[in-house]
Every structure is written in structure tokens, then in C-alpha cells.
Amino acid sequence: MQTESFTASRVDELNSLFLNSGPEKLLEWGLDAFGDRIALCSAFGPEGMVLLHFLFRMKRRVRIFTLDTGRLPPETHDLIEKVNNLYSFEIEVYSPDPADVREMVKTHGINLFYRSVEQRELCCEVRKVRPLLCALKGLSAWITGLRRSQTITRSAARKIEIDDLHSNILKLNPLADWSEQEVWDYIQKHSIPYNALHDRGYRSIGCAPCTRATNPGEDIRAGRWWWEKDQKKECGLHASPSSVAKNGTNCERIGAEKLVGASGR
Ligand code: SF4
After folding, report:
1. Is 142 helix (H, G, I), strand (E, B) or coil?
2. Which phi and psi angles does 126 have, rounded to 5°?
3. Which of 2, 7, 125, 214 could share a disulfide with 218, CB 3.0–4.6 Å?
4. What residue numbers bound the domain in which 37 lies?
5. Does residue 263 carry a pLDDT above 80?
6. pLDDT tens track for 64-81
7. Residue 257's CB: how many other CB atoms inside 10 A?
8. CA-to-CA distance for 186 and 49, rounded, in angstroms?
9. Three-state DSSP class for 235?
10. Which residues line ligand 1 (CB under 6 A)?
11. Does 235 participate in catalysis according to the annotation?
């Protein structure tokens, strides 16, 4: 089990080692190195589904968590239910602290995010960033579906990074060098389930009120917070938002079965 702390030069070495290898090699290394102290964070987007499939085929036990913001589209809950039935993973679901949500809604209204970038970032902090801090507690590393070509803020993503937003734990991005086409080719080849919204023109899916379908020729992230003009559209999970301090880390953890059952569909 890994006990070393990772310096920038050690991370450079590891990136060189995994430069030309596929996602399995990096996943194997991460699971061997960290055991229960590593987890996959998945929002069940195409990249997350590819990683789930890799892990399933590798027959490795791994912690998987997701963040249920309370504003996800029903199609995402449908996909989580499919994943529950198809793969034998236990998915940990982290939800925002109800008191935080109550306070935010009481002060700013339920759809505060349309008013300003600051209020949108506050909502993302309450509903996503704080639950992520809970999920990462006790971890030495996490696995994400980040790809360099997803957005300008991710263009420098490496397969292994020191995550200075989260106590300098390691962040593994096994698909960092994959294109969107490679992701979809893999999904088609292996008949991997995906969010039904993708067949309706959605390319990147987050919360329902903050996601729309994209038009031909638009950027992959154009449908996220489409009313904001800034290119740096991030919720704070992978890049620090501009104006919101991280306060507190209360959140709820439930099982995926309860989440799906609670969706009422
Ligand atoms: Fe709130 Fe929208 Fe961010 Fe979801 S994506 S947490 S609804 S601002």
C-alpha cells in the first residue's frame, strides 16, 4: 500500500511512465497503490461510464461515489438505476446539507444561478463542492473522467496530478488524452449504457436547470450555464471558482438504491 507523499518530480516521473499506456494500467496502479483510499468520482457522463466499464472488466473492487445535487435531471437517475442493475458496484451518493440548501434558497431563491456568476458559484458550492469535500475525506487519491479537450480550463490536465484544491491528494485522470470521439467509439463498441439526454443533443450534462442541448458547431460545454459568457465554466470541483470561499463540509451520504427510489419515477 502506498505511503509515500508525492512530490512534483515523482508525479512527473509517473506521468512519463503512463504517457503511452491505456486507462487500465493507470487504474491498476492506483488501485494497487491506494486500496480503499482511492475512489472514482462519477457523474455518469460518457467518460464516467467508460471508466466504470473498465473497472468492471478488470474485476477490481473499488469505491465509487457520485454527487446528487438535488437538481439532477430524471434521465441521470434512470442511468444510475441501470448502472445499479448492470454492474455490481455499490455507489456512494453524497448530497448537500439540507440546512445549507434551505438557507441558500431562503436568502437567494431556488433559481439563484440565473442572476449572476457569483450566485451560480454559490449554488455549485452548496450543492456540489461541499459534498465533494465530504466524499474526499480520508482519501489519498481520486479518479475522474477529465479530458484535456473538454474545455479550456482542462486543456493542461495530466493523467496524474497533485490536487492542490483538495489537500494535495492525487488526482488520476485516465482519459486525459482521449478525444470525445474515442469515448463514444468505446461506448458503442462495448454497448455501454449512457444518459438518454445525449440522444437529444446534450453533450455535457449537469443539473437540469443549468444544462441545455448544444447546436451543431457549438463547443462541448456550450450547453452548461449557457447564459454565462465566460469561457471558464467550472463548478469548482476541478477548478477554483472565482468568488466563493469554501465554508464547512456538511453533507448527507445515502445509497444509490435510496436515491433512485426517492426520485419517484
Ligand atoms: Fe446549482 Fe446549477 Fe451548479 Fe447545479 S449546476 S449546483 S443547479 S448552479
Report:
1. strand
2. -65, -45
3. 214
4. 8-262
5. no
6. 999 999 999 999 999 999
7. 14
8. 10
9. coil
10. 69, 71, 113, 120, 123-124, 127-128, 206-207, 209-210, 235
11. yes
